Amino acid sequence: MANSNQEAFIGKIKSALGKSSGEPPPDEELCRSRLTDETRAILDRIKNRSQGERQQLLERFIEMAAPINLNVIVLTDEDAVAAAIVDLVRAKDPEWGDQKSVAVWQHPLIERLNLPAALASEKIPVYMTSLDDPQAEALSEPEKKDRLRRQVIDAYVGITSADFCMADTASLVMRTRPGQARSVSLVPSIHIGVIHLDQIIRDLKELYALLSFDPDVGREGLTNCMTFISGPSKTADVEATMVHGAHGPREVYVYVIVD
C-alpha cells in the first residue's frame, strides 16, 4: 500500500509530466514503445549505410578506442584473423603458471576461424563453451557445467564475437546465449572479439532502434543478459593509480573484418 510520502513523490513526477495525479494512464502508454518518425529514420539510415559511411564508423571506432586502451586491428578476411590470433596467443604468456589454453564461443564466425587446428602446432588446447562437447557426453549436466567453468577459469585468452559495436563509445555489445557464455569475455586475462565491418553502429540510439524495432534483431530480444564492453577492466581506487585487469581482462583486442 502506498503511503503519503510515496503518493506525494509520484504526484510531483506526474505534475512535471503534465499528468493528472488522480487519472490512471491509458493502456497504450504502459510499457509500450512506439515506432516514431525519428526511429524509423534511424533504421533507414542503418539499412542504407554505404561502404564509405561504414568506413567512417570504423575510423570513429578506432579513434574512440585509443584513449581506453582498446586495441583495434583491421584485417581483410577470416584467414588473416586466424593467423593474427595465433601470433597473439603465441606471444602472450599466462599471468599464472605456464600452461596455455584458450576458451572460445560456439559461434559461426569463431568456428570458421578453425582455431583448434590453427593452434595445434603450438600445442595449445582450445575449449568451446558448449555443453554439447562430445568429450563430455558421459558426464551429468552439473558435471558438464563444472567442467566448462573450469576450462574458462584456466584459459588465459577468451575469444568471442559480438552482436554490435558502438563506434561513439568503442563498446562491444554482446547478448548471452547457449554456447556463448559471458564468462569468456570477463574471466580470462585477455579478451579477443571478432566482428565484421557491418556490425559497427553509431551509438545507443541506433542500438535501441535495432533492438526495439528491427524484425531480425528484435525477434530474439535481449536474451537473459546483454553486456557492454569498453576496453579492458580498469580501476584507480588505490592512490588514484590506474590499474588494468583488476576485475576482468587486462587486455582487449577487437579484430574487424572488412572483406
Plain-language structure description:
With 259 residues, this protein is α/β, with parallel strands linked by helices. It has one domain (34-257): Rossmann fold, CATH 3.40.50. It has helices spanning 4-16, 37-47, 51-65, 78-91, 108-112, 115-118, 141-154, 183-186, 204-213, 215-220, and strands at 70-75, 102-104, 126-128, 157-160, 164-166, 171-175, 190-196, 200-201, 226-229, 234-235, 243-244, 251-257. Strands 1-12-7-4-2-3 form a six-stranded parallel sheet, with helices on both faces. Strands 8-5-6-9 form a four-stranded mixed sheet. Strands 10-11 form a two-stranded antiparallel sheet. Strand 5 and strand 6 (171-175) form a beta hairpin. Helix 2 packs across helix 9.
What's the gist of this structure?
With 259 residues, the chain is α/β, with parallel strands linked by helices. The chain has a single domain (34-257), classed as 3-Layer(aba) Sandwich (Rossmann fold).
Low-pLDDT parts are: none
- Tell the overall outline: globular
CATH C-level: Alpha Beta
CATH topology type? Rossmann fold
First-to-last CA distance: 60 Å
Strand order of the largest sheet: 1-12-7-4-2-3
**CATH superfamily, called what?**
NagB/RpiA/CoA transferase-like
Output the structural class.
alpha/beta
Mean pLDDT over the residues: 88
Q: What is the CATH architecture descriptor?
A: 3-Layer(aba) Sandwich
Task: Report Rg.
Answer: 22 Å
Q: What number of domains?
A: 1
Q: Count the strands?
A: 12
The portion of residues forming beta strands comes to 15-25%
Order of helices and strands: HHHEHEHHEHEEEHEEHHEEEE
